[in-house]
Amino acid sequence: MKTFYLFCSCIFCLPLFGQTNTDPVTTIEQTISAINDIHTIVYRQQMTRSNPRNTSEIIEDTREMYLSRLPQDSIVGAKGHWYFLTSDETGLRYEDIYDGSRLIRKNNSTKAARIYDLDRYPEFRQQPFWSHQTPYTLQYMLQFVLDNRSAYTLTQLSDTLINNIACHQVHIRLEDRESMPGFMSELQDAPGNVSILTLFIDNNTNYPIQVNMDNFSKDQPQQRFFTHQQYFNLQFNVSIKDEVFDTSDQSTAGYQLQEMKPRQ
To answer: What is the CA radius of gyration of the chain?
Structure first.
């Protein structure tokens, strides 16, 4: 069963009675519009997710992201540098660096790096090989939901507080179908599958600060797959130096390199 991967989190929430926008379509449209105005973004992400091989095991990590929008990019919609922090958040375990043409995946523990050259191997752009959720992939998926509204159940829940920030709360439910994440969204039949996405959207910025996803089968509802992500220290439209997205050979000096090729 494919999992409809989306940001999510199960942080403590308090209802704010009497402060609810009752139209989920309007709320989603406002979020799509807000993302249109984001050209660069820097933030920290805390993620908790179930292990797909053992749903009773919980995996946690913290990442820092630097993104600069690439409107024509079909992979993640942005140049990006993803820093995967150590458990004490004082070091770097991994780094992903993507500039729209080249992806470098660095393991800082083993000093090994995988190189994906999308100009040399354009086939990468036609197949899922790597992905990160970005504001721009989320924007695409939300527009996909609105364009295929009959397949989804949209519900606006009561406004709530997330870390003392007032948020709209939108439920998006998909049954007996599934969808690939990101720019490869497409609906496929999946009898018995249930995906529930909950967006917690800052009332002031119209930008999600938390996104919750549960995926399960109707005949095994207790066996749930989830990915929980929450965003902190969001900085919109800040200046990011070009070297942050450097994928040149100099950026992998001292690493053992492995050139990756598309699946045949």
So the answer is: 19
- pTM of the entire predicted model: 0.87
Q: Based on the structure, what is the number of domains in the chain? A: 1
Q: Please tell me the distance from the alpha carbon of residue 8 to that of residue 214, in angstroms, as a whole number.
A: 8
Backbone region of residue 98 per phi and psi (left: phi > 0; alpha: psi in -120 to 50; beta: other values): beta
Q: CATH no. for residue 95?
A: 2.50.20.10
| 3 state DSSP class of 33 | helix
Rounded CA-CA distance 157/200 in Å is 10
Q: Which domain holds residue 103?
A: 14-259
For 133, residues 6+ apart whose C-beta sits below 8 A from its C-beta are: 5, 6, 7, 181, 182, 229
Distance CA 133, CA 14 (A): 27
| pLDDT (mean) for 29-37 | 97
